[in-house]
Amino acid sequence: MDQLAQQLVNGLITGSAYALMALGLALIYGIMHVANFALGGVYMVGAFLTFYFVSWLGSPFYLLSLPLVMIIAIGLGALTERFAFRLVREAPHATTFIVALGLYMILEGGSSVVFGHEWKTIPSPYNDLVFKLGPVSVTFQRLLIFVVCAVLSLAVYVGIMKTMTGKMIRAASQNHDSACLIGINVNRMCLLTFGLGSGLAAAAGTMIAPTFMVGPAMGLGPITKAFVVIVLGGMGSLQGAIAGGFILGMVESLGAGYISSMYKDAFAFGILIVVLIFKPTGLFQR
Amino acid sequence: MGRKYLRPRIWIYLALAALLFALPWIVTGRYGIYLATMVGIFVILVISLNLVFGFTGQISLAHGAFYGIGAYTCGILQVKGILPFWPALVVAILFTGIIGILVGIPMLRTRGPYFAIGTMCLGIIVSLVLLNWQSLTGGTSLGGIAGPGRMNIGGWEIDFLSSKTYYYLVLIFDALSLFLIYRLIHSRIGRALIAIREEEELAESIGVNPMKFKVLSFGIAAMFAGLGGGLYAGYMGAIDPDIASVGTSFNLLVMVLMGGAGTIMGSIVGPILLWMIPEWLQAAQQYRPLIFGFILLLIIIFMPRGIVGWVRGLHPKISDWIP
Amino acid sequence: MKKMGWIFVFGILLFAFGIVPQLLAKEKEVVIGVIGPLTGGAAFLGVDALNGALMATDEINAAGGITIAGQKLKIRMESYDDEATPAKSVAGLKRMKDRFDIPVVIANVSGSAIAITEINERMGVLWCGFARHPGITSRGNKLVLRMETPITVDTDLAAKGAVEIAKAKTFASLSDTGDWARGVHDNFVKAMESRGAKNLGTEWFDMRKDTDFRVQITKVKGLNPNVVKVAAYDEASGQIVKQCREMGLMVPLVLTTGFQSKGEEIAGAKNLEGCINVLMPGNFDPPPIGLANYKANYKKRFGGETAVYGELVYELVYIMARGMEKAGNVNDAQKIKEGMKAAVPIEKEHRTAWLKGWMENGDGILWRDIAIYKNGRRVLRDGRPASPQD
User: Fold this and answer.
1) pTM for the structure as a whole
2) In a domain? residue C57
3) Which residues of C, range 47-86, sit inside 8 Å of B by Cβ?
């Protein structure tokens, strides 16, 4: 029975990791209608940057790398918008997806040239700090993932829904021409959206990387799961992304714990198919 | 209008066909013929994916999975000694088609990105099952697939182990597939599908059942993918679960879009590019994935309708010449 | 203007199929093909293996190359990046056979090796490599030489150690889902069960994606086994050992050849006390001279630490060179194979893997024994550190 508690907590934490990953993707898809596969590469770049920050500054400064990495990633995201996505803004979805795929390859290929092919580990000081709450034990690192995810989700939600900039972004996403007419700089809103989405993905990389190994190909799995999450939650919905992330984490954890750990991934992807059969537009459509 | 208009086009087709049949003598060496055969197999996959894309307007990321199912059905039947190559190939085609229909029924009720990601998940599950069900699939590798081997047809000895012979086999299947799909597009089924794609409600109002046709086209496309898989299994002699992975589906999608979605020439150019560019870039060593990413990006940004799409757009008359 | 499109397509087709003639300089050299993942997730294996081959090649050439019928020939390694995709591995093999008429191909990833060994006999190319898939040597292929023992040798030793030293009557496993670990796991289970031990269960993980295995460890602990088998690579195994002890799982752990110095460092000597593993030449005390030289030279040339992949391929290339000299032949794959069989064991200065010989089916015979951990180091079961024999 206490295994159930542990599995639930694991599910919650894994879920928060997925939600964090999916948040950036949901933002960009919700606002720009672009399935930005390149975020898998940004996630990986975030992890690598964290690795180098920690190697350079020392592991006690691990948390300091988070804002630094996010700033760099926001810049990177804006660059991808300006020089790639803007050029295909009016193109069909399939084309923009391939653009994102090409960017992902560039990021993965580039990082294997720059960082080498060896898988590295980030020595975060929080990885070995274990909390025991009754039958449940959880590392501080994983708690941090949960906390950071909660904070960022709230920040993004408030930012998009309540602030002026957020409203401008949403206006621009609904209709470029009308937004232009009322004085919104559509190009700047696009830059901002892509930048923010990328910043969130890189934040996921920074937080999650110490629990994984860091390598150029590390982003493929997480971005695939992130896509599943946003479809599960209903594409374009921020709340859906967060809820979807937690649901996915739970299903995966409980499935692995009680049915079969060999087919762990199959549960995650299987749940999506089940949901799509009954609700073809996801759980919480916009 | 009639014959005068058609004549030059037919000569071009004949020239192309002659080139393809004479290829093993132009390109000597196993390497060239191997690549040509691989491209040939992928042409079947790409043209059937184009069928789905063109007829349902949706991106299917399950095509790699169907390819894998076809390869493994054909392979397992041979390795377990149940059937020799040719009947195994037929079973593989039919079985994959059935799976395609079963998958299509729930999946085709979804649209756009939901459909894409849903089919992607199916693809992932298929490759997971292929990897983990070791007693059936041999786990990471299934070797010892006999393939068509040697055959004796009316006194003529055909050795399919020879690269040249297998190339012609694939070429014949390519021609067959192109012919069948062409007939399909121009048949009543094809016209119904185009009507559904263009204006679904209107089509419904004249008595066309959209789901039935969409699922049918999805199943037919899956059958072609199964054919490609079976041919691959017979050619390589050994297969692995990665061929059914999402990576293959992504590659197929890139081939479709790079070549030119919805065009027959595009279905040929796409596989050629995606097989040949990495080979040309071998010298670039560790920079290869980076350079390939740039090439992909440049092509898709400046030629969003693919290379063939771009060529066709150069001059109105060219569209008549290039299908 | 009408013709342009067709000329364009025609041009693509022509260029695509290599109608551009290849101008090859016929030099006095032997070209060997190395096919493996040089990019992508498995690059850590392919690049290290290639580096080992390059080091051996450079040393051999610097010492004058190989001498065949009085003539001195240089060796050249031609590499091909197959991204661990069997279809590309075969393309690489055909490409190199066409262009360079390679007599030997080195391919170390199992999927690629299986695909290559479907056709290498017909092409007259000898396959060598350390891929572990049993199918490579079990299909009657006459042109294979595996630079590794079959997995069963290692797992058998591990099971022997578990049953005889740790007196295990029951066992459980923590295994990665990758094909190497799966092979180790499945064969270990068979070996243990054949010795009368009971399998209580297995918990799986993906060592590429997890570094926290506490959930799986909790479940295994609940099964109450006498020993626990840990099937994973270096760092993951190290993490598991550490976390097992933290979670109160104190029974002896049975590790694998994948577990090396990095993992041992992570685990810590205290946590490893009494654990069982397979002893390899790398654990000799003092370290064998060939290995010590290799590690030092590797660091000088490539920077960074070596891994076992390069070590295996380094000795393989030396054996190949000596074998070609013994056979007096650099073109006939069968003769080269016979020469290589006669050339082992090679001189101590270049022994990094300690291959003793080959079995009839091509499986390698390497130096292996049971080891237990004492003070963080692997020693023989009687407590003595192992040392180079001959």
Assistant:
1) 0.89
2) yes
3) 79-81, 85-86
